[in-house]
Amino acid sequence: MSEKVRFSVSLDPMTNAAVEHLARRHKPELSKSYIVEFALVRLLDAMDAKQLTLPLVLDAGADASH
């Protein structure tokens, strides 16, 4: 089994609400930590595959409702 490292992340209210909505509507319900880890792994994979160019324009919560 792989060892996990815990860290904390702060989300703005819109992003948090969007993640909570996604977690609730999935069957079985997902945890917010699973969703955030999944998104982070996809981001890292895209960067490794050179399918994502940086710098990213990150506007906290701007796309949270999508």
Give the topology, please:
Layout: H1 13-25, H2 32-48
Fold and architecture overview:
With 66 residues, this protein is mainly alpha-helical. It contains 2 helices and no strands. It has helices spanning 13-25, 32-48. The longest helix has 17 residues, at 32-48. The relative contact order is 0.18.
Reported for the largest beta sheet, the result is: none
Question: What is the overall silhouette?
Answer: globular
Query: Unreliable segments (pLDDT under 50, ≥5 consecutive)?
Result: none
Mean pLDDT: 82
How many E strands? 0
Strand coverage percent? under 5%
The succession of helices and strands, N to C, reads HH
Radius of gyration, whole Å: 13 Å
* End-to-end Cα distance: 34 Å
* Proportion of residues in helical segments: 40-55%
Number of helices: 2
Supply the key terms.
mainly alpha; 2 helices; 45% helix
In short:
This protein has 66 residues and is mostly helical. Helices cover 45% and strands 0% of the residues.
